[in-house]
TrEMBL record:
Pfam family, one: YceD
Name of this protein: Nucleic acid-binding protein
Superkingdom to which the source organism belongs: Bacteria
Length: 198
C-alpha cells in the first residue's frame, strides 16, 4: 500500500489474493508496489540468515484467459555469514520473477513448451511463498566480505593447516607435477648409464 500524499510506504504483512479477488483485474493489470516483512519466514527456512531488510516488490499481475501472469522486481538485503570466515556480510539482492499460474490444466499446450506453468492447488495466489522461494534461490554458494573478495585479508590458518585459494591450489599442483621425486631421480640416472653402456 502506498501513501502518495506523504510519500510513505507502509509495510504489508502479506501478498495473497483469492482468484475471485483477482478477477476484477481481468481488464487492467494489478500494479504492485509493496514492502514486505519476510524476516521470520526466511530465517525459519535458512538458519544461516541473521537479518533481512524489508523486501521491496514492484510488478504487475495480469489475467489472460485461465492464466495468471506475474512479473515482479524484488530488492532485499540479507545478512549471512561469510563462507570463509563466518563474519556477517550484508548481501544485497535485486532480481526479477516471471511466473505463470493456473487453476485449470486444460488448454496449456501453447505455454508448456516455452514456459513452466504452475498449477495452483487452492484458489489462492500466495506471492509470499513465491518471493521466499526465489529469495532463497538467489543466495550464492560463496559469500565473502569485501576485504575477502579483494584478497586483502589473510586466509584462515592454524598449526599445520591453512585455507588457500583455488588459484594457489592449482599452482601448487602444477609445481608438484613438474617436480621429480628424488628417489626416482637416482633411478633415472641408472637408466641413462645403462643406455650409454649398450
Amino acid at each position: 500500500m502506498v501513501d502518495v500524499a506523504l510519500g510513505l510506504q507502509e509495510e504489508v504483512t502479506s501478498m495473497k489474493w483469492s482468484l475471485q479477488e483477482l478477477e476484477k483485474y481481468r481488464e487492467s493489470p494489478l500494479k504492485l508496489q509493496e514492502t514486505l516483512d519476510l524476516t521470520a519466514v526466511l530465517k525459519a527456512r535458512d538458519h544461516t540468515i541473521s537479518d533481512v531488510s524489508p523486501v521491496k516488490v514492484q510488478g504487475l499481475i495480469t489475467l489472460d484467459q485461465a492464466l495468471i501472469i506475474a512479473h515482479l522486481d524484488v530488492q532485499v538485503t540479507l545478512t549471512l555469514p561469510s563462507t570463509r570466515s563466518l563474519v556477517p556480510v550484508a548481501l544485497p539482492l535485486a532480481f526479477s520473477v516471471d511466473e505463470i499460474y493456473t487453476r485449470q490444466l486444460t488448454d496449456l499446450d501453447e505455454h508448456t513448451t516455452a514456459e513452466t506453468v504452475i498449477y495452483l492447488e487452492q484458489d489462492v495466489l500466495d506471492l509470499d511463498q513465491v518471493l521466499t522461494d526465489n529469495i532463497l534461490l538467489q543466495i550464492p554458494s560463496k559469500i565473502l566480505t569485501p576485504a575477502e573478495a579483494a584478497n586483502e585479508q589473510e586466509m584462515p590458518h592454524g598449526n599445520d593447516w591453512q585455507v588457500i585459494s583455488e588459484a594457489d591450489y592449482q599452482a601448487q599442483q602444477a609445481a608438484k607435477a613438474n617436480q621429480v621425486d628424488p628417489r626416482f631421480a637416482k633411478l633415472k640416472g641408472l637408466l641413462k648409464s645403462d643406455d650409454d653402456q649398450n
